[in-house]
Every structure is written in structure tokens, then in C-alpha cells.
Amino acid sequence: MFSGQKFFDDKHFPKGFARSGYFTIKEAQLLETSGRTMKALFEGAMVPQDEEQQKFVDEVNGRRAAESSYALCWLKYLKEINHKHVVYNLCSTSRGGVSEDYSEAEADE
Fold first, then answer.
1. What is the pTM of this model?
2. So what's the pLDDT on residue 87?
3. InterPro entries under this entry (predicted)?
4. Domain for residue 46, yes or no?
């Protein structure tokens, strides 16, 4: 499933697949070398050329259990890009400037 050109996703993985910390080295290499073909097959922009590619399409679309390294890697990629990351903030966001408790304590003085 070699695609000829390297596959990059600068939007979700600006430092590359290998440096993202999410993929193993083997998975990162698989995405880089075959990612364009896998994406085209997944989106339907490319018709499967052989049995291996047809198996990939079936596995990714759920018609068959994912067993191949290509399908498992692509499903892991899709899971990561469609996952909403939660960001926790450790500082307060008081919009009024001064909290009510502080202004009452100041009035007592």
C-alpha cells in the first residue's frame, strides 16, 4: 500500500506522527509511507486495486474485524483526530474583577 509521497497532518500532528507520543515508531512509519493511499481509500476517492486494499476498506468501514496493521493504524489515527481534548485551567476566571467576599471584608474595616 505504498503511496509514493509522504503523508503529513500538520493540523493535528504539527511535529509529525513519530514525535506526537501517540503512535509507535512502526505506526508512524506506516502512516507516513501509506497514509495518502489509506486516506484516499477511506474517503472513497480511490478504488481498491487489489485484495489487500479491499480488505483494508472492509476493515475500516466495519464490514470485517480490523486485523491488518494498516486498518488498526488508520483506526487509531481516526480516533485521535476525532477525539476532543479537554483542557483544565488552574486559575480562576472572575469576571467582576473583585469578588464579593473581598469587598465585604474591606467594607468592615
1. 0.72
2. 78
3. DUF413
4. yes
How far is Cα 107 from Cα 23, in angstroms, rounded to an integer? 58
* Domain residue limits at 39: 17-82
Q: Which residue has the cell 479537554?
A: 86
The model's pLDDT over 20-77, given as tens digits with 9 standing for 90+, comes to 888 999 999 999 999 999 999 999 999 999 999 999 999 999 899 999 999 999 999 9
All three cell numbers of 23, joined, read 503512535
Task: Supply the DSSP symbol for 1.
Answer: -
Answer whether residue 12 is part of any domain: no
Q: Find where cell 474591606 sits.
A: 106
CB 27 within 8 A of CB 19: no
The tally of domains found in the chain comes to 1
